[in-house]
Design a protein that fits this description.
globular; Jelly Rolls; alpha+beta; 300 residues; 5-stranded antiparallel beta sheet; Arc Repressor Mutant, subunit A; 18% strand; 9 helices; 2 domains
């Protein structure tokens, strides 16, 4: 047999990355703005922010992503009420396809959210330093990064952009998965979403495995397997992390002291709250508050 190769064409290629950030800002944070000769996007993971892009003002909410084209002035500011979590990534790309993103605010889907998470996760191993410093001007490569981490960041980032273009413009139909697997995945997804909604509703209470199972008509082993598969954590560990995430937001909003936050979230004592917080974040509540506030007060 005589085989012939097929050249795989690159439509959109990224070679240079300038910044990869995940920010957890105070509710009064303000970045005065800048412009540069490369692309940047900002995605709201939690809360909402006010953004100026060029001469236009926008309010971005959870799940929205805005692109700033090269040399476009942009700034970002918390609204004074909600402490936001943001993903900000800047890169160079000369592909004509990037024109699609000019003056666009898009809504990310779950697969795109996962890609952003993978980029952040890889960046933690590939680069040194903190990912929450808005004044960092250079990414420093780590001495011992994971195998092919830089390439994975590039591939994930390219895939993210391609998927957004396809979903909003090309709308290429996806192949049909096997029916049995599709039904099972849909059922698991619906159950997981149901339990998450239940946890969110009762996040200020103390829940047990038995309470969660009984209230959602699910077996204990099925529940644990579902959470391990979907999140990598057990159900109660996931619930504890949900509490701490909310505590971090309340700290950044600066309306309550630590004792009030512990009481509001159903912790038995301020000491137990502090232990749980440090176990999950690696910092005490006061250390966390100081580190975030230090960034928000950073001189320009």
């Amino acid at each position: 047999m005589s085989y012939k190769s097929v050249y795989l064409q690159d439509i959109l290629t990224i070679r240079d990355v300038y910044s990869i950030h995940y920010f957890e800002y105070m509710c009064d944070f303000s970045f005065p703005g800048e412009s540069h000769d490369f692309w940047e996007f900002l995605c709201v993971d939690k809360g909402e922010v006010n953004v100026i892009a060029g001469d236009k003002f926008h309010v971005l909410k959870k799940g929205e992503i805005i692109f700033h084209k090269p040399n476009e002035f942009h700034n970002v500011k918390s609204n004074g009420l909600i402490a936001p979590n943001l993903v900000v990534i800047s890169f160079s790309c000369s592909s004509p396809a990037m024109s699609f993103f000019e003056e666009k605010i898009l809504q990310i889907s779950e697969p795109e959210r996962l890609l952003l998470g993978q980029i952040i996760q890889e960046a933690k191993h590939v680069f040194e330093g903190r990912m929450d410093d808005p004044y960092q001007e250079e990414l420093i490569k780590a001495e011992n990064p994971g195998f092919a981490g830089e390439q994975l960041i590039r591939l994930y980032l390219e895939q993210l952009l391609i998927q957004l273009i396809r979903r909003y413009m090309v709308r290429t139909p996806s192949p049909n998965p096997p029916i049995v697997k599709s039904i099972k995945q849909k059922a698991d997804g619906e159950l997981f979403a149901l339990v998450l909604k239940y946890m969110e509703t009762h996040v200020c209470e103390t829940l047990t495995i038995d309470q969660i199972c009984k209230s959602n008509s699910v077996g204990r082993s099925q529940l644990q397997k579902l959470f391990r598969t979907r999140s990598g954590y057990g159900a109660i560990e996931y619930f504890s992390r949900m509490k701490v995430d909310l505590a971090k937001q309340m700290i950044r909003e600066n309306h309550y002291n630590f004792t009030q936050i512990a009481d509001a979230l159903g912790f038995s004592s301020i000491h137990y709250f502090s232990r749980q917080f440090k176990q999950i974040t690696g910092m005490t509540p006061s250390e966390y508050a100081s580190s975030i506030k230090a960034l928000s007060d950073h001189p320009v």
